[in-house]
Amino acid sequence: MNVPDEHHEASRLSRIWDGLIAGTASSREEDAALVADILRVERLTRVPAPPPDLKTRMWSGLMRQASPVVAVVVTPVNVPNGHHPERMIPTRSTFRARKTPILLAACRLIAIGAMAGFAAGFMTGLWVRIAMSLAGMLTVDRNRGLLTENDAVVGQFTLGGTVFLAMFAGMIGVAGGLLYVAIRAWLPRNGWLRAFAYGALLLGVFGFIVMDPDNPDYRLFGPPWFNVFTFSLAYLICGAGISFVTDRLDRWIPVPGLHAARRWRSIAWIAALTPFTVIGVFAILLALPNLAATPAGRIMLLPLVLFVVWQASSRWFSNLDLRQRGKSLIRNVSLLAPCAVGLFLTLRSVFEILAG
């Protein structure tokens, strides 16, 4: 067939097919075979319309089906070059190199907490002395000159007594500074809000230690509500002072390192911080037995002991998800349980003092 014949047949096919689509099929006998072929092709290629809910059913099936997780394992290729591969065994110096920066960072934080706690406690002691003087001024005349529970003369202001009270409060504040360093990560990020939150935390958890309802001084010397207010303010001053001083020292004191370029500088800082680190360690060793000596202290220490035990034993759990969930749960319980116990004791002490 030559080219003109091919064009003629193509035009004829197009004309007949268009006629079928338009509904005017050709009635000529020579076109009957071609019309039959066109109808056969349309019948074979006709695709039925999908059901209207097919899209919905497909998406439902995809959402219910969990996506398979393909584990990709990358195996390192060792080239022994004809020799048996040797396993690298870490030497003792390797372990020492890993532990030394952690130990130095911990000693630095203990020293910072001890310094900040002592400074804030000293300031709080001065405020307590002022509060005691104000309470002595507000007391009735017949109670002036009497001795308090701590053998201090009401209304008498001495330099020696003030310094002793400030130093004593500073030593107690060391424990507060160490506690702040330990829980600072869970406090608000904003500096002012963090300072207020820590002061409120000290008041709520440890307020019952100072505000003892069995101490008659709260009712003998000055109005009870005034004494409760001034000593509550002492907790806020101590907590805020610890927060501000700790954050400032943390930015000012560099982290000790073992690099050769900064080795002498690090040694100088370590030597300067060592006395405060020793004071902080002694404060921890003294605070734990004192807390364990009272029923309330034992209740507050129990979650902390549980947290330490979990930290030591969780490494044996092979399930990483279970280990992380357990760590989070134990940590929250260790923080919330002592707070709940201390808050209950503090509120009870305040109500008993105000009730008289």
Explain this structure.
- With 356 residues, the chain is an all-alpha fold.
- Residues 65-73, 81-85 and 87-91 have low confidence and may be disordered.
- The radius of gyration is 41 Å and the shape is elongated.
- 72% of the residues lie in helices and 0% in strands.
- It has helices at residues 3-22, 32-45, 54-64, 92-138, 159-183, 191-210, 217-220, 224-252, 263-292, 295-313, 320-355.
- The longest helix has 47 residues, at 92-138.
- The chain has a domain at 99-291.
- Helix 5 crosses helix 8 (224-252) and helix 10 packs antiparallel against helix 11.
**Average pLDDT, to the nearest integer?**
76
Output the helix-strand order.
Answer: HHHHHHHHHHH
Sheet with most strands: none
Describe the oligomeric state of these chains in a short phrase. Answer: single chain
Low-confidence stretches: 65-73, 81-85, 87-91
User: What is the helix tally?
Assistant: 11
Instruction: Give the number of DSSP strands.
Output: 0
Rg, nearest Å: 41 Å
